[in-house]
Amino acid sequence: MTRLGFVVDLERCVGCQGCVIACKAEHGTPRGVHWMRVLEREVGTFPNVRRTFTPVRCNHCANAPCIEACPTGAIVKRPDGIVLVNDRVCVGTMACLTACPYYIPVRYDGGDGYFGETLTPYEEETSARFREGTAQKCTFCVHRIDAGRPPACVEACPADALSYGDLDDPESEINQLLHRRRHFRPREELGTDPSVYYLVGKGGGGV
Amino acid sequence: MRPLPDGAARTLERAWAGWRPDRHSHGNLGRPFDFSFPVQQHWGAKVAFYLYLGGTGAGFVFVELLLRWWGIIDARTAAIGMWIGLALAVLSALAIFDHLGPVSRWSAYFAFRRIRTSWISRGVTMLVALLVLRLVLAVPSLPGLDALPWTEGTALGDALRALVLVVALAFMVYTGLVISSWNAIAFWNTPLLPVLFTAFSLLGGLAALPAIAWLASGALAMEAVGAAVWPAVLALLAADAILLGLYVYGMSTATPPARASVAMLVRGPLRPRFVTGVVTFGLLIPAAIGGLWMLGALAGGGLGGVALLGAIAAIEIGGYFLRDAVLRAGVYGPPV
Predict the structure, then answer these.
(1) Does B101 sit within 8 Å of A92, measured CB to CB?
(2) Closest residue in B to A109 (Cα–Cα)
(3) What is the ipTM of this complex?
């Protein structure tokens, strides 16, 4: 079996938001819809302060609470573990958002573009891909995966902080990373079995 | 209460400031790129109406059926109670379908597709089952149909009545289960919530019976039914107050997001809804009026009846605000 997952190296992430922009460029997500985010936080008190950066996205959980919560069956999991929203079936109940402990799904409600009421040609082109009133979330760049290419965020990361691969393959690059480095999974205690791992280490990586 | 950690403290500050997410999408909670405990903002008044009307409607049906079975209320009062209960259930269904189907209202039938896993699907299915079963049970009371095999007093009728009671009780429990089954929001994720919502649903149904008796047969019937059911209403008020206290106290000692929820209720922007709406209107005012009425201090003229109707209205207002406040106080934990 294949189970695709991400590994995020928190020591390497510099908070450039390159993955966020790459995701936006790849999918043309409308204003207010972010499938990829890098959370920023200041920790400590002056003069001993530092800033942490934590990339977050859909964790493509093995026990995805969004799939169980959705009353319409709009959220499905592929055999390779990628969790997708079928916007032909989604009616925007937002049960997925309520059930997701990572509050990842958002509902696209239409509205202005980034530059006001008049959409740019690019926005006109891309907004047509999104059905108003439906849940939106990371697709693991499934079109790229199927074509044998890495997800846009992984490809764009200048610090090589993002990796992806098959969690069920002991020889995969991400399993090698997980074998060598300390790591944790987000809110693992909730039983969602997320497919995203965060690497931490002595260099200061942390949340 | 222990001081809140940074993320939860920011949640409270923003809630006070009336911060709202980007209007272009629904669900980018908090500022999307910083680290805090966001307040859920997508399940609001419509869902609160659904939970309140559905729960109270089921409470009405449960109580009228049971008390009619026991011979405490007459058939006319029970029939009016049934129609009011079913009307509330229909209104609650309209509220939830309006919430569920913003893409196309006609797609709301999708909500029935996943009863094996989704509590929303289970709830709307139970609601429809309650409506259909109760109407089927009422059919023999129509003129010319009293020969049907499930009239009052027959074995089939009793079995059907028991089934309606079970479905009504299940729906009252469901109104709490639907939100407590998800562990994303710590304030909701407790088995006490279904018990609390069930108790408030029963209270809403039972307390309104004197008003229904008044509609059915006038002031004297109201006094008689009131004397029969208000001791139980007062006991339920006390039980609800204890349950609410346990729930809020328990959450105030739980995880930081749950403590942030309690802080929003007792000293944050939800204080008016919780303290005035739930505690004062829902519990204190009806307990005071009901107590005085039971002691006979409000007898004489129409004052007792008016006061009793006021107490009933206060209970219903409190019932709505309980669902509304609990929903709005939902705070997520950190995503990582």
Answers:
(1) yes
(2) B25
(3) 0.86
Q: For residue range A22-34, what is the model confidence (pLDDT) as tens digits?
A: 999 999 998 888 9
* Sheet bearing B25-26, strands edge to edge: A134-136, A106-108, B25-26
Contact (CB<8Å) B112/A94: no
Q: Count CB neighbours of B75 within 10 A.
A: 11
- When the pLDDT of each residue in chain A is averaged and rounded to a whole number, the result is 91
Is the pLDDT assigned to residue A78 strictly greater than 80? yes
H or E, element range at B98: helix B75-100
pLDDT in tens, B265-286: 998 889 999 999 999 999 999 9
Query: How far A176 CA sits from the closest chain B CA (Å)?
Result: 22
> What are the beta bridge partners of residue A75?
A85
DSSP annotation of A56 = E
A95 interaction partners in chain B (CB closer than 8 Å): 118, 120
pLDDT exceeds cutoff 90 at B129: yes
CB of B105 within 8 Å of a chain A CB? The answer is no
Q: Which residue from B200, B197, B194 is spatially nearest to B233, judged by alpha carbons? A: B200
Residue type, A189: E
Q: Bigger pLDDT: A62 or A40?
A: A62
pTM confidence score = 0.87
Question: B22 and A32: CB-CB below 8 Å?
Answer: yes
- What is the pLDDT averaged over residues B118-128? 91
> Where are chain B's structural domains?
6-15+43-328
Please name the fold of domain B6-15+43-328. Answer: Formate dehydrogenase/DMSO reductase fold (1.20.1630)
Report, at the CATH architecture level, how domain A4-200 is classified: 2-Layer Sandwich (3.30)
Nearest CB neighbour to B34, from listed A31, A40, A101: A40
Chain centroid to Cα B132, Å, comes to 21
